[in-house]
Amino acid sequence: METIHKKNGRLHIYVRQDKYKGELKSHNWVGRTYINGKQKVFSSGTTDLEKATSILEKWFDDLHITKEQIKETSKAEDNIPKAFDDLHVTKEQSSEIPKVQDNTSKIENDIPTDVNQKNIQKEEYNIPKEEEKEETNNSNQSKPPTKDVRLSMFEKLKNIKFSKLSLGKKNIQNKDSQQPSKQNKFKKILSSFFKSKLSRMSVTSEEIVGIDVTREAVRVAQVSKDKNDKWILDKFSYRLLDKEKVGDNLLDSKDYASEEINLAVSNAKISTKNAAISIPYTSAIIRTLTSPLMDEQELKQAIETESLWDNLVQIADLNDYSVFHQVINRDSKKNTMQILFVASKLSDVNSYASMVKKAGLNPVIMDVRCFTLKNAYDNSIPHGANKVQPAIMEFGLDENYMMTIYNNTPIITDIFLRPQEKQTLLQLGDPNFSNSEIENVIRRYIMQVKQALSEHENKYETKINKITVVSSLKNIKQLLPVFKKNLPNTGFELYDPLFTISIPTYNKEKLKLENKSTITSVLGLAYRKLDVFGYYKFVTAVKNINLLPNRDAVRQQNKIKFLSGFAFKGLAATIAAIYLILIGYSLILYNSNKEKLKEFAEVEAKIKIINAKYEKLTEQKNKMDASIAITNMINSNQEQSFRALAQVARSVPTRMKLNKIEYNGEKEIIIRGLAFDPLDVINFNATLKRKSLIVDSEIKQNNRDNTDQSKSKSMKYAFEIRCTLDFSENRKKT
User: Fold this and answer.
1) Is 217 helix (H, G, I), strand (E, B) or coil?
2) 198 pLDDT exceeds 50?
3) pLDDT on residue 630
4) What is the dotted CATH code of the domain comprising 389-499?
5) In this predicted model, what pLDDT tens digit does every residue of 606-653 receive, in sequence order?
6) Other residues' Cβ atoms within 10 Å of the Cβ of residue 136
């Protein structure tokens, strides 16, 4: 559909794509805009684009002029005296207001009998959900809106009279409202800041088990992060399902699947009850819709009036679906925005939820399988690496599609396989089966893949050189060369979701799988976190998808749970803060007392220095006293004995202490003391023998001293040496 944007992108001119038997029902150009969150649609009644543009632009201007006049009329009526309350406007004085009737695209000039603000505000210019007969048949009946929208004399009188009276009051109110508006802005910024912090805390603290249920197996997983912000596969388990019990439809065997989920959770020793599950891609409706730019309030009003989905998505009985939407891109230049629309039948959603509930778990997130694969891929990319989005292709007996990403917008293409072609894939490896039939199936499959790649490259001007393959087929590795053969310029790689995740030793045996891509979906679910404060709302829509019909109640319940825990943590933090304050106060007192005791420390240091000097002097005094005591025992008038004593004193080694020297008055000196080592005593005795006045010396005792007479702990050996003297004339001369 070709869409022409006018009036700064707020007016969209297009031809409605309503077809009957392959032909357009209407060839007329139609205008569409939004006022107060409500969609307004008007047919120009002509197939000439120039004439239609002129008519539709006038219609657009008249709508906005009417909107402004309604506001002015409302302000004026608020100031009308009671005397004018009973007056009415005549038919000739009333303004001409364009009105779209319920069963035709014609605009008529309807003249109201009473100008009443409430009646005017209730006017809605909506096109019915079902387009009537061909608009070409009604083109002669439709008329462009009048050139000028004239006000009655009475309305002009009211506007002139009371707008002047209220002018001064308005200025005063504007001055008074400037300060509150600044305060409100500050409150909004502060609120969003704390909300963002709370959102991150709630997202990181929530524990969730991912549950992937297919016709082949039930898989459960729970992950966490280490100090380096890397993922760890804490708990993992799987249960292969009996094909005879499951059949063609998994939902027909909910009780059996619930039992297997319970067993898998028990085997993995998972304690959390919060579960994230997925529904098949074939059970979901996924669209990326382009809409005129609206703020959150206008978008909310458009959804509440059901006019948005009725015009953008043609789905019968939308009330039977669980719908999730998220704005993923806003383009202020084109004045448009892109909305991710995801829906699934309530019956399917409730069936998958009840399956998990029967296993004793609480479903809090319901995602679509294709988005769980993207989530697993995004979380497997190392932190800081370039996130180049490849095409993700799921190939199997149940799910067949290819998903490409551009500016975080998913583009999903269905790939069709006939039932007989699926049976052909199962017979790969059978020696009695021809491989040519399999190659024909792959060739037809790759033709659809090639077409999807070509459309993506032509639209977004980006080339895709690599396709990541996820498959539940056991023989998928044998099919990859056939893929490459049919599409040689594109690489095909079987995805390994574990190449960057840490695996504990107790889980390595469970993960020795030949085809590891089968656990991609369960890991993508395990990475999901329940966002109760809207943290992912402004990050990426794919991480925020939740199709549970009671998701608002679940979010509110977990929000209360988190806030109560947060309050407890806040109380603990307050107590810790009080202790920190007391410790800080104690440190201040300690530093203050330290300054006061600074002089005492200096005096104490001086005393220590003086005591050290005193100890040295005391030691020297003791040595001198010992020498004096020895000399007192010798007669100073005997020259020979004094000389002998001098020779003995000069011979004493450093590691020896003399306690007593006795002289018998004739020719013998007895030396007693302590030595550090017996060898010192032997050396001392040898030195004495070489002295001129000593004829001979003999060691009488040299053993360990076990008494407490020694003051020095190092002098442990007591000794006694007897020296024989010779006072002959020859000895004296030497």
Assistant:
1) strand
2) yes
3) 65
4) 3.30.420.40
5) 898 999 999 989 988 888 887 777 666 555 446 777 788 888 888 888
6) 15
Which residues, including other chains, have CB under 8 Å from residue 472's CB and lie 6 or more apart?
Answer: 214, 216, 396, 397, 398, 515, 518
- As a whole number of angstroms, the distance between CA 61 and CA 109 comes to 16
So what's the architecture of 633-733 in CATH? 2-Layer Sandwich (3.30)
pLDDT grade for 256, boundaries at 50, 70 and 90:
very high
| Interatomic CA distance for residues 718 and 702, integer angstroms | 6
pLDDT score recorded for residue 74: 62
| DSSP conformation class of 666 | S
d(CA 31, CA 107): 13
Q: Identify residue 516 by its one-letter amino acid code.
A: K
Domain boundaries, the chain: 3-165, 389-499, 633-733
Are 493 and 479 within 8 A, CB to CB? no
Evaluate if residue 257 carries a pLDDT over 60.
yes
Radius of gyration of the chain (CA): 50
Inter-residue contact 532 to 334 (CB < 8 Å): no
Q: Distance (Å, rounded) from C-alpha 24 to C-alpha 183? A: 55
In 26-63, which positions are buried (b, 16+ CB within 10 angstroms) versus exposed (e)?
bebbbbbbbbebbbbbbbbbbeeeeebbebbeebbebb
pTM for this prediction: 0.53
Question: What phi and psi, each to the nearest 5 degrees, are found at residue 452?
Answer: -65, -40
Quick one: average pLDDT of 254-274?
Answer: 93
Closest CA to 530 of 510, 552, 498: 552
* CB proximity list for 546: less than 8 A, separation 6 or greater: 324, 365, 366, 367
* C-beta of residue 369 within 8 angstroms of C-beta of residue 282: no
Structure tokens at 252: 């027909």
**DSSP result, 254-272:** HHHHHHHHHHHHHHTT---
- Minimum mean pLDDT range among 340-354, 379-393, 489-503, 683-697: 379-393
Give rounded-to-5 percent helix, strand, coil for the chain.
45, 20, 30
Q: What is the pLDDT of residues 406-454, one digit of tens each?
A: 877 788 999 999 888 888 887 766 666 667 888 889 999 999 999 999 9
